[in-house]
Design brief:
Structural class: mainly alpha
Strand order of the largest sheet: 1-2-3
CATH topology of one domain: Rossmann fold
Number of strands: 10
CATH architecture of one domain: 3-Layer(aba) Sandwich
Distance between the termini: 11 Å
Order of helices and strands: HHEHEHEHHEEEEHHHEHHHHHHHEE
Radius of gyration: 21 Å
Strand content: 5-15%
Helix content: 40-55%
Length: 406
């Protein structure tokens, strides 16, 4: 029997971390500009002992001298703190627990003057919008919200689903690129994110990231920039978009960064970052509200809840990589010792791949996409080395709760 086809440059052999429930099929970068079907993507590394990089990072966190790290933070903040009350750092976010925690600590504990910057969700949930308003009004922050061209956002999101099965690509690009643009425009030299991307196994430097790094915001040639799997020239020529329509989604011009350098820092490098603690902090200080019901596809209520398309995004990761929302949540909670691996396995078995029907038809109507088309795309984007059809139903070949199905 021939080996099943492997898509997306994923490892042919599926390996699950022995400590959490994540597999080596998880892409280590959330989004790529260059769309090349033959390119190889970097995936989560699992070492010879069967432990993934993200779990190794969690292990090393227990050995960190957090008092010394905070002293490093204080020196950094003293370097950038403005004495005249002008903005001295930017905190991107939409009022979720992490952006609330980061902005509130920087302002009220460390005496900084953060400007919060928001690329809003495509379709706000009611409770997500209330959390955003509470972040600004109860928390007490200045905020710039950039609402992108609605027609372009809708079109690019639909193309991202059709060509990449990635409902979140357009949002991620906008969210990632808006902060440095605002930083350059308002001459704010420092951007703070919350958790470090290494927490999830992503290969990024420990303390800082240059915005001129290729993996971040450098833009040299529009022909090499793809949105929704379509090159910029093709979008302009065939999809009735102008360059102006798509500029909001593109990186800051590297020439502007040469004229005004901007640093990216991760607050989670300097203070021990625990998502659950960030949630409790946000509840206490800005009246943050969890969802009034469990998020479909997982067991939690407070992660990624502001956009109605969130749940659909995690469903598509299950289709492409065999990794659903419960796998992400359980792995993080195992690393933080809030649940055992056995409990995580049970939660993944119960909730991973649950279809998110609560907002599905509203999202499809907004994107002007027929549900039947979406389901066909899901089947087309399944990688054969992960999925097989038995008695007319799709089943995973490999799952964390059983040995490979042969």
């Amino acid at each position: 029997m021939e080996n099943p086809e492997v898509k997306y440059g994923l490892p042919e052999k599926v390996i699950f971390c022995k400590r959490c429930v994540m597999s080596n099929q998880r892409p280590a970068s959330a989004v790529e500009f260059k769309h090349n079907k033959d390119s190889k993507k970097t995936t989560l590394h699992i070492d010879e002992d069967g432990i993934c990089d993200a779990c190794r990072v969690a292990e090393r966190k227990e050995q960190i001298d957090w008092k010394q790290r905070e002293e490093e933070l204080l020196k950094l903040l003293d370097k950038y703190r403005n004495k005249d009350g002008a903005y001295d750092c930017i905190v991107p976010g939409s009022g979720g627990k992490d952006s609330v925690y980061a902005a509130h600590l920087l302002k009220y504990k460390y005496g900084m003057h953060p400007l919060t910057v928001t690329w809003p969700p495509m379709l706000y949930t009611d409770y997500g919008y209330r959390n955003f308003r509470n972040w600004i009004e109860v928390g007490g922050f200045d905020n710039i919200t950039f609402k992108p061209n609605g027609r372009a956002m809708k079109l690019l999101t639909r193309l991202s689903i059709e060509n990449l099965l990635h409902p979140f690509q357009t949002f991620i690009l906008g969210q990632k690129n808006i902060a440095p643009k605002i930083a350059v425009k308002y001459k704010v030299p420092l951007i703070f994110y919350g958790e470090h991307e290494a927490e999830y196994g992503n290969p990024i430097a420990d303390t800082t990231t240059s915005l001129r790094d290729k993996s971040y915001y450098t833009m040299h040639n529009l022909d090499d920039i793809y949105l929704g799997g379509i090159s910029i020239p093709e979008l302009i020529e065939h999809y009735n978009l102008s360059l102006s329509d798509v500029m909001a989604f593109l990186p800051v011009d590297y020439r502007e960064l040469e004229a005004f350098p901007v640093e990216v820092r991760y607050l989670g490098y300097y203070i021990k970052w625990t998502p659950q603690e960030a949630y409790y902090y946000a509840v206490e200080h800005t009246n943050f509200q969890a969802r009034p019901f469990r998020s479909q596809g997982t067991y939690s209520k407070y992660n990624s809840i502001d956009d109605k398309i969130d749940d659909l995004h995690y469903y598509t990761t299950f289709m492409k990589f065999g990794i659903g929302r419960a796998t992400y949540d359980a792995s993080q909670e195992i690393r933080n010792k809030h649940i055992t691996r056995e409990e995580g396995v049970s939660l993944v078995k119960r909730f991973d791949g649950e279809f998110p029907d609560r907002y599905f038809h509203e999202v499809m109507d907004y994107l002007e996409m027929k549900p039947e088309q979406f389901f066909k795309l899901c089947d087309r984007f399944r990688s054969p080395h992960l999925w097989k059809k038995e008695n007319g139903e799709w089943k995973l070949r490999h799952a964390v709760w059983y040995e490979a199905i042969t």
